[in-house]
Amino acid sequence: MKVTEHIKNAKGKTLFSFEIIPPKKGKSIQDLYDNIDPLMEFNPPFIDVTTSREEYIYIEKQGLLDRKITRMRPGTVGICAAIKHKYDVDTVPHVLCGGFSKEETEYLLVDCHYLGINNVMALRGDAMSHQKYFEACKGGHQYASQLVSQIQNLNCGNYLHDVVEVDDTSDFCIGVAGYPEKHIEAPSLQTDLKRLKEKVDAGADYVVTQMFFDNKKYFEFVDAAKKAGIHVPIIPGIKPIAIKKHLQLLPQVFKIDLPQDLITSIEQCDTNKQVRQVGIEWAIQQSKELQAAGVPVLHYYSMGKSDNVKAIAEAVF
Ligand SMILES: NC(=O)C1=CN([C@@H]2O[C@H](COP(=O)(O)OP(=O)(O)OC[C@H]3O[C@@H](n4cnc5c(N)ncnc54)[C@H](O)[C@@H]3O)[C@@H](O)[C@H]2O)C=CC1
Ligand SMILES: Nc1nc(=O)c2c([nH]1)NC[C@@H]1CN(c3ccc(C(=O)N[C@@H](CCC(=O)O)C(=O)O)cc3)CN21
Which biological pathway (predicted)? Predict the structure, then answer.
């Protein structure tokens, strides 16, 4: 079922969902299952599976370092199918512009359609770690809005090359990213909202936000989005802080601000175990307020050990 249908069927009740990353190449999928298992009692209607960018690796060969490019966490669509099969839950693969040509994206979407996966999150993707700015690959899209258009075209039976006879069209429900504190490259929040509106006009059915730690930012964003003519559900993304290093890392990687109260509480912790507890309590407080405001879904960036998301879900759902 589509994410938007799950939201409609919930009749105003806030749903619980989360996001996971595929294991590193060579690692077992069992670890992932062990972290999903404890969250299933909260009935997530859907689980997102991210797609990571390819990266350079260096292999020693006769005393020299050979540079190769590879995706260290492949398998997004396979994991989506495996989870769907194992837990009978909908899965949402993240489909990126970065590192994929339009052809490859078409093949991936065809795979999803055959597998009964009818939700996708359409993202541009980050720049590769050695790049300062995002660069589209040869034959790939530059912006998420173009990717949304490709998916929407496919939903209308229009493949990249008009040579196929179509009697079974896909019907993907399309999610896109939104930024309550604006995207780093956007010159202003207003311009960023214009870009978000372009994604919705191209066919996006819902928005998931970048993580934020001050609910005020989310509420203001939702208001501004409405004023900009965006009327699709806007799902808040929540990340529980887990280690002291996140104080620097999260603002640096995700370009978001942390509230002073949260910073102070974390600074007072002696161990990362205490930090994890502060992160849980902050996320519970955020989640309860968002739930009271009637958000459609609370979407957690779990991305590893899920004990903290479980503790939050226990307190909120
Ligand atoms: N992997 C994941 O789960 C997620 C990744 N992200 C990351 O967020 C970043 C951006 O992704 P999206 O939001 O999907 O990209 P996007 O293509 O919607 O926007 C990227 C940037 O380009 C600007 N932009 C969009 N259209 C433009 C146009 N026609 N002309 C000029 N500027 C334009 C936007 O304002 C924004 O600054 C990436 O770094 C992505 O990896 C965000 C959320 C989830
Ligand atoms: N710019 C960007 N890229 C993404 O891939 C991304 C977003 N934003 N925002 C929404 C989700 C949330 N994502 C993530 C990805 C990783 C962690 C995470 O756990 N990160 C590490 C630190 C990050 C690092 O080392 O680069 C952590 O320890 O928490 C959390 C959320 C992926 N998504």
Answer: One-carbon metabolism; tetrahydrofolate interconversion; Amino-acid biosynthesis; L-methionine biosynthesis via de novo pathway
